Amino acid sequence: MQDPEYGTNRRRFLSAAAAAGTAWLTSPGALITRLSAQSSESRIDVLLNEPVGTIAPEIYGHFVENLGGVVYDGIWVGEGSSIPNVNGIRTRLVDALRKVKPGVIRWPGGCFADQYDWRDGIGPREKRPKRTNFWVDADEWSKTARRDGPQRYDPNEFGTGEFARFCKLVGAQPYFAANLRSLPAQEFWRWVEYCNSPANTTTLAAQRATDGFTEPIGVRYWGVGNESWGCGGNFDPEDYATEFNRYTAWVPSYGVRLGLVGSGPNDGNVDWTRRFFGKLSRTNTLGRLWGWAMHHYAWNASGGRTRDWLTGKRDAVKFDAEQYYDILREADEMESLIEAHWAVMGETDPRHRTKLVVDEWGAWYASGTEPFQEALIGQQNTMRDAVLAGLTLDTFNRHADKVAMAAVAQLVNCLQSLFLAHEDKFCLTPTYHVFDMFAAHQGARSVRTLCASPSTQYSRNGTPTTMRGLNGSASLNASLLTLTVTNPSMDQVREAEIQIHGGTARSATGVTLAAADPHAHNTFEDPRAVEPKPVAVALKGSGIVHQFPPASVTKLTIILG
Ligand code: AHR
After folding, report:
1. Distance between CA 56 and CA 365 in Å, rounded?
2. pTM (predicted TM-score)
3. Mean pLDDT over residues 116-142, rounded?
4. Which residues line ligand 1 (CB under 6 A)?
5. Whose CA is nearest to atom 2 of ligand 1?
6. What are 210-231's pLDDT values in tens digits?
7. Distance of alpha carbon 94 from alpha carbon 165, whole angstroms
C-alpha cells in the first residue's frame, strides 16, 4: 500500500535529516556515520557474523488464566458440547494454535494461581468441588454479566489433566504457576509429584493414572508464586526470597530438569530485582533460580493521569493518534526494561545463569469491547495490537541471549488475545497473525540487526514526542534468513535498504500484515478483515530494498547464496 503523501513526506524528511546531518539508530551507535548517506530513508543492517543466541521456542509462549472467558467458553467447552471439541477442548482453537507452534503455555494464573488448590482439579470431573474464583469481585465486571456462571464459581472441570492434554494437543510445554500465597510448600512438591513421579510409584502417580496419565506428564517449568509484590502476597523482596527458598528447597526432580521461575518485577522495579537477587546470593541459593519473571503491560499513560488502574485506560478500538502511539511507546519500553533488569541481575549473577522470563505482556484497554459479557477484561484487537506484538517479539529476538521464555497475556478472550471465541463463534485476531509470521524465528540463531530509520513523531499531552521508527530482528537457520520488520508509523510508508553483511540474498519472498486503517480488526461477523498478504520483494545488490506500509508487520524470508 502506497501512502499518497509518501513522496512529499520522504522529501521533507530527507531535507530535515540533511540539515541535521544525522542518522537514526535504535541500537549501538557504531555504524551511524557509515550508514548515514543512503538513498532510502531507512536502513536495516543484518550482521550474519554477529550471533546473539538461539531464539528459544519458549519465547513464543502464551498465558491461560482461569479468568473470565479464557478457560470456560474460550478453551473448555466440555465433552458433551455441540461445539466441535477434542476431549472437551475447542477444536478450532487447537488447530489454529498448533499452527503457530506455541513454545509454552502458562496456567492457571496470574493472580488466580495464588488462590488455586490444584487438588480441586484432579479426579473424576463430576466429583470436583465448585469454588469461588479469585476474580469474583473484580471491578471490571460488566453489570449485565451472569453472576452465577463458571467464570465466577469455578466447577473445576478444567484442571491439571485437562490442561496437560491441551498442551499436548497443541504441541506446547506446560508451565505451571504454583500457589505460594495460600498453600503450604508441601502442596507445591505434591503437585510436582502428581505430574512428574514415575508410573506406579506413589499414591499421586496412581491418581494421575486414574486421570488418564499413566506415564509422567513431565512438567519442567514451575513458577513459584505470581506477582508476589502484589496479588501474590504483598511481600517485600527479602520476605519473598525467604518463601522462595522454602518452596524450592529439595523439590524432587524425578529426572526432569526443573526450570524454577521466581516472581520478578513489575515493569521497571529494579529494586525488587536487586534485593531479591541480593538475598538469594547471601543464602547461596541463586543456582535454583532458572528464570526471573517480569511483567510489562501497556495501557494509555497519557491523557493527564498517572498509572491509574481503572480510569487511566482507553478504548481498544476507538483511539486517536496520541493514544495509538502512546500504547506502542509504552510497550516498546520492553527493550530498556530487559536491559535494566539484566544489568541488575548481573551484579550478583555475573555469569547470568538465570534468564529473564517475560510471562505477562501485552496491551490492556478499558472495558467495553469484550467478546461477550462474561469475558472479564476481554478486549478487541486491532492492527495497533499487531504492531505492538511485532515490536515486542522483535525485541525478544534481539535479546535471545537474555530472554528464555515469554507469554503474551492472554490466549483467548482476555487482554491481547490471539483468539476471540464464544459459543460456536470464533475468530483469529491480528496478533494471531503476527505469531504465525514470527514462528519461523523459533529455534533459529538471532543475529545482530540494526535499524536506522526516521523516528516517529507525535504529540503527547501537547508536547512533541518521538518513538522509534522501523524496528526488526533477524534469525538464521542454515541458509534461510528470516527478517521481521515493524513500521509503527500510523501514516508513513518507510522505504528501507536492507544490507546483509556476511552473505548475499539469492531470492526472497515477503508477507505483510497491514490494513488501510490501523483501527481495522476481525470480528465474529467479519473474521478475515485483517489477514497477512504476500508481497513482492526486490533484490538490490547483495541486499534488498523494501517499502513497509504504515502500521504494518512484515516478514521477509531470504535464501542466502
Ligand atoms: O493478566 C491479568 C492479570 O494481570 C494477572 O492475573 C496478573 O498476574 C496481572 O496483574
Report:
1. 29
2. 0.92
3. 96
4. 65, 109-111, 226-227, 360, 409-410, 415
5. 110
6. 999 999 999 999 999 999 999 9
7. 11
